[in-house]
Amino acid sequence: MRNASRRTAARRVTLRHQQSLIDAWQGLMKDLFDPYRPELHYMRGPGPKWQEKHARVYAPAPVSGEFARVTI
Q: Are 46 and 31 in contact (CB under 8 A)?
């Protein structure tokens, strides 16, 4: 009787182990091949309206030859 219960317990452990391996494999495959990439849908920076509002024109400095910032 003890052998039968040990075998049953061993089967349960083996099935749990197999199921955890299957779950890990499925999770890995989902992570590797999931087509949804939210970072592609987020705004990456200021849009054209913001750039229009905050536009700056750079012109050469009259004396030094370096570029000076001139706002319009």
A: no
- Quickly list DSSP for the chain: -HHHHHHHHHHHHHHHHHHHHHHHHHHHHHHHH----GGGTS--S--HHHHHHT--EEEE-TTT-SEEEE--
pLDDT in the model for residue 25: 95
pTM for the model stands at 0.40
Cα–Cα distance, 12 to 18 (Å, whole number): 10
Q: Is there a contact between 67 and 56 (Cβ–Cβ < 8 Å)? A: no
